[in-house]
Amino acid sequence: MTTPATPTDAKKTEMPTLHEEHLTKFWARYASTVYFVCGAVALGILAKGGWEYLNVQKELGIQREFAQCQTVDSFKSFAANHPGHPLTGAAEITVADIAYSAGKYAEALGAYTSAIADLPSGPIRARARMGQAMSQALTGKAADAEANLRKLMNDTDVLKSIRCEAGYHLAALVLDAGRGAEVQGLSEQLLRIDPTSPFAERAFSLRPAAPESVTVPVAPAIH
Questions:
Q1: pLDDT (tens digit, 9 = 90+) per residue, 54-81?
Q2: How far is CA 141 from CA 100, 145, 163, 215, in A?
Q3: What torsion, rounded to 10 degrees, do the Cα atoms 148, 149, 155, 161 define?
């Protein structure tokens, strides 16, 4: 004989049924929204991963292209095709160095100036600043050269060796301009920056010699 279900047993059997019914109604009503949200999240994850992958591949491609540059024209072409990229600065400073070595100082000046704008802070950018100043000096822009060398010498974020070299070139320009009295102060400043720097010693050697003392003959006494 089957035992009749108690009210408590009926509730127990109804609860999961009602729960399933609610889920079914919810899914029927919001299924498209849930699919859309899940799809959007999935697409977002895929898009982010895909974008990062594309960026990595693009960067690797730029690096390979730079490694293949062998001539001045190829470095110029690379710089034109990738404005603002750090390797563009490296390409430009390469073009500048070649032009400087060939005595094409105006061309070197333009390339050094472009490299400064594209290179991040660091020794290579500081060297580009040095090249810019020296090119300015060799193209008749002595005042600009002095100003940039002085900034480089006083820049505490730059390596001491580069600062001292800038100070030495500045002292040479000052001496050529007929302001030899300033060389003493520049030499002392370089010693304070780095007393072991050979450029500080060279700057001291640029100091104009002090005029020799003139002995005035004493007139013989008249008796």
A1: 556 667 777 787 788 888 888 888 888 8
A2: 16, 6, 20, 43
A3: 150
Long-range CB pairs of 136-142 (<8 Å, 24+ gap) are 136/109, 137/169, 137/173, 138/105, 139/105, 139/106, 139/109, 142/173, 142/177
Residue 18 lies in a domain: no
Host domain of residue 168: 142-208
Q: How many independent structural domains does the chain possess?
A: 2
Report how far residue 96's alpha carbon sits from residue 9's, in angstroms, rounded to the nearest whole number: 91
One domain, residues 80 and 135: yes
- Tokens for 15? 């609860």
Are 164 and 148 in the same domain?
Answer: yes
Shared domain check, 124 and 78:
yes
Give which of 192, 174, 191 is closest to 183, Cα–Cα. Answer: 174
Kindly state whether residues 102 and 113 are assigned to the same domain: yes
| Claim to verify: residue 121 and residue 146 sit in the same structural domain | no
Note whether residue 3 is domain-resident.
no
C-alpha 6/C-alpha 8 separation (Å) is: 5
Length of the chain: 223
Task: Give the integer Cα–Cα distance in Å for 74 and 82.
Answer: 12
Summarised one tens digit per residue, pLDDT across range 107-131 is 999 999 999 988 888 898 999 999 9
Alpha-carbon span 8 to 186, nearest angstrom: 100
**Distance (Å, rounded) from C-alpha 171 to C-alpha 187?**
8
Note if the pTM is more than 0.70: no
